[in-house]
Every structure is written in C-alpha cells, then in structure tokens.
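Figure 3 (text version): structure tokens given as input.
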C-alpha cells in the first residue's frame, strides 16, 4: 500500500504558538483557565486538561484577579474591556494573522466602509472579528450576495480558514454587485497551501483520509476539498476510527491533517495503515 502524507500536515504556526505558550503558562501557574477550547481538537483538549487547563465558555466564569488565556482564534474587543474591569490578566495567544483582521475591520469601519466578513457565522474567529465594528455583515454563501442592500463603499475581508475556492466565487459576485469595493484576502497562507496540497494528493490516490478534530473548521474544509475531487474520501479524528478499514481495498492512500492535529496523531495513523 502506497501512503502519501501531505507535507503541510500538522500544527500551523498560530496553533503551535498557542499550545506551547499554554503549556508554559500551566507549568508556571499549575492551574489556569482558557476562554474556549484552545483548538478544535479533542485529543489536544484532553491533554491540556490533564496538565491543569480548564476551558470556560464565558469570561463571567473567570474570577477577578485571575489569569486567563485567549486562544489563537481571538476574541472581540469587548472581552478585553470586561477583563480590565474584573482585573483579569489576559495571556493573549490570538494569532497575529487574526489580529491583522481585527485591525483592518476597525480601520475600515472608522473610514465609513460597510464591512463584509466572509466566514462561518458560528466560528469563534468570526464571532471575535465581528466585535471590532458595529456594522459587520457575515457572509458565507454566494447565493446571499443578491440579498445584500446597496452601500456606497464596501470593505470585504475573510476568515483565515475559509475555503479559497468558495471565497473566489463570493469575491467575484460581490465585485459585480458593488462599484466601490475593496477586498482583502486574509485567508491564511497555511490554509491555502494545505488546501492546494490536499487537492493534488486527492487527485493522485485511490483513497483519501482527512484527519483532525470533528469540530475543526479547517479540517472540514479539507474534507470538502478532497471529496470534490475524490469520492473515496473520509474524515476521521484518530487512527481508531473503523472507517480506515476501507483502505484495505485500495492501493494508494493520501493523508492530510487539519491545522490543529498533532503530528503524532498522523504518525499513529500511518503506522496503523502499514499494519492493515
Ligand atoms: S490557520 Fe493561520 S491564521 Fe489560523 S491560527 Fe493557524 S496560522 Fe493563524
């Protein structure tokens, strides 16, 4: 059985920074809270909980004068204000690429642009980014473009892990819809490279495995990308998923992981496949 593992598999820069930073902080403080799951990967979450990290859903669950971690997805401006009021020390691991989006949204809104953020409205990064201006419209579908109102000038930015192909479709529909429009393609390079490599591998192999957290947006996007090209594609969380037995019927297997999947999870999968 031939196995091809994507070179762009494993943690992206922002996730690696947030995880290693949190590990250092939990060593220092022994017990520490983090606002939301650090990454959308249950394996990583469990490991961090065992080390002493508690994940909370709302800042109201953090005590005054405590220390609180902000994950790579970032949070809205309001969270910083609430933390200040409660004297909570924030350790901020918002990915610098997400911070750039926050600054650009703020700046565009201050200049009078109608801001359109292309992304999944329930995704934490999008929820956080929306909180940097009062006029942000979230859009994740090309069909919704025609329902938008008329605006004098429009500024468009995109979730870092959004599908590149889907973004291009929405971009071209918006360009036709508005005369005065400015685009910032803020899809992270790491996401783009991963999706491109995923496509290439899916074209070459008989069977494609996407491995990562079930709730991970970028992992789901990879699965969509792979499925479009290769119907024999599956998405799994780890090597214990029975779906991998399907591989026995095929000669070549491709593997690509999401940005929040540890490298050892991919290695475990490869070992298991080699023993099938
Ligand atoms: S995918 Fe890109 S933007 Fe998101 S955390 Fe990773 S490096 Fe940062």
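Below: residues designed for each position.
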């Amino acid at each position: 059985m031939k196995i091809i593992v994507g070179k762009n598999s494993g943690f992206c820069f922002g996730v690696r920074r947030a995880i290693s930073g949190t590990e250092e902080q939990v060593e220092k403080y022994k017990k520490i809270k983090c606002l939301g799951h650090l990454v959308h990967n249950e394996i990583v979450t469990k490991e961090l909980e065992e080390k002493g990290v508690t994940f909370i859903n709302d800042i109201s669950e953090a005590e005054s004068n405590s220390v609180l971690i902000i994950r790579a997805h970032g949070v809205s401006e309001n969270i910083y204000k609430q933390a200040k009021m409660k004297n909570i020390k924030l350790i901020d691991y918002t990915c610098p690429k997400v911070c750039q989006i926050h600054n650009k949204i703020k700046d565009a809104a201050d200049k009078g642009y109608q801001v359109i953020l292309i992304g999944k409205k329930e995704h934490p990064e999008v929820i956080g980014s929306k909180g940097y201006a009062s006029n942000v419209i979230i859009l994740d579908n090309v069909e919704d473009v025609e329902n938008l109102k008329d605006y004098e000038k429009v500024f468009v930015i995109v979730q870092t892990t959004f599908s590149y192909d889907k973004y291009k479709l929405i971009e071209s529909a918006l360009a036709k819809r508005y005369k005065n429009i400015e685009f910032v393609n803020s899809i992270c390079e790491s996401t783009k490279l991963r999706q491109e490599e995923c496509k290439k591998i899916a074209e070459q192999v008989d069977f494609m495995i996407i491995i990562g957290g079930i709730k991970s947006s970028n992992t789901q996007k990879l699965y969509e990308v792979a499925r479009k090209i290769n119907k024999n594609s599956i998405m799994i969380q780890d090597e214990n998923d029975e779906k991998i037995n399907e591989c026995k019927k095929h000669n070549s297997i491709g593997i690509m992981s999401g940005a929040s999947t540890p490298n050892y999870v991919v290695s475990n999968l490869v070992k298991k496949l080699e023993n099938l």
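The chain has a mean pLDDT of 96.
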